[in-house]
Amino acid sequence: MITIMGASGHTGRAVAEILLKDGQKVRVVGRARDRLQPLIDRGADAAVGDAADAAFLAAAFRGSDSVYTLMPPDPTHPDYRTYQTKVGEAIAKAVRDSGVKHLVFLSSVGADQPSGTGPIAGLHEHEQRLRTIPGLNSLSLRAAYFFENHLLSLGLIKHQGVNGSALAGDLPIAMTATADIGREAARALRARDFTGAAVRELLGPRDFTFKETTSILGKAIDRPDLAYVQFPYEAAFDGMVTMGLSKSMASLYVEMSRGFNEGRIRSVEGRNLRNTTPTRFEDFAAQILAPAYRAM
């Protein structure tokens, strides 16, 4: 049995689909049964409950050969770092109580840093927490900036005719597709070929600037002149709050943007064959971003 937290989200769903196709026995964990139903229909067992409930998680993890864990996002939470700590402590207690010996955790590039990285600091904290669990073999997948994050920019492009954020437009950063994260997580969950507290980066096919991704996206949506604008941090904060994020979450995202812009959030391993993933942003823009934009 392999148990997967966040199975209705981008990476968790990718992991579950790969394992089910491979004939593995899978338990999917999420907050809403209806969002898990497509996986249930394909043969997955389901556990529906709160990720901050250690007893619920322990019951879901019990009997598993390996588990995939993550911090389910809650961008409206009034104190997001406190939320991260609560969920992280629940996961750790559930792992201890259930006797799980192999765990894959979705972390992030930048999780080597204890502070100054916004929500990534909560992932650093959790990596350290996992190290304290006796007998646990954990693999923290430090993923790059998700291609899927660009979906959040489509409304701005549609209504204001520009792309933008607080990140510098000419700063090269690693970006990756969540499908590639799912493939590596599924492989590790099956193979269980990691010991102790292992860390692995997933950096996408190459580094991109936001001006580059904007140009690629613009061509995919027939707006070849689409421009990227770097917003002041204060304006980015106000925009995120207007979109419905809590002030806590918006503040952390601004801090994360500073962390990228000032070089705190960066690869530790450096790019190599093992951490370079295959999906090209050009293909993602044409196959995922452009249809989503046209459907708006």
Write a concise keyword list for the protein shown above:
12 strands; 11 helices; alpha/beta; single chain; seven-stranded parallel sheet; three-stranded mixed sheet; Rossmann fold; 296 residues
The 3D shape can be described as globular
**Distance N to C terminus:** 39 Å
Radius of gyration, CA atoms, in whole angstroms: 19 Å
CATH class of one domain: Alpha Beta
- Would you tell me which CATH topology of one domain applies? Rossmann fold
- CATH level 4 superfamily of one domain: NAD(P)-binding Rossmann-like Domain
Tell me, rounded to a whole number, the average pLDDT.
96
Beta-strand content bin: 15-25%
Q: Which runs of at least 5 residues are low in confidence (pLDDT < 50)?
A: none
Helix content: 40-55%
| Sheet of most strands | 7 strands, parallel
CATH architecture of one domain: 3-Layer(aba) Sandwich
What's this, in brief?
With 296 residues, the chain is α/β, with parallel strands linked by helices.
Description:
By secondary structure, this protein is an alpha/beta fold. It has a domain at 2-146 and 177-202: 3-Layer(aba) Sandwich (Rossmann fold), CATH 3.40.50.720. Helices cover 44% and strands 18% of the residues. The protein has eleven helices and twelve strands. The chain has helices at 10-21, 33-41, 54-61, 80-98, 120-131, 154-160, 178-191, 210-220, 233-242, 247-261, 281-294; strands spanning 2-4, 26-30, 45-48, 66-69, 102-108, 137-143, 145-146, 162-165, 173-176, 197-202, 207-208, 227-230. A seven-stranded parallel sheet has the order 3-2-1-4-5-6-10, with helices on both faces. Helix 5 links the parallel strand 5 and strand 6. Helix 1 (10-21) crosses helix 7, helix 4 runs parallel beside helix 5 and helix 8 packs across helix 11 (281-294). The longest helix is centred in the N-terminal third of the chain and has 19 residues, at 80-98. The mean pLDDT is 96.
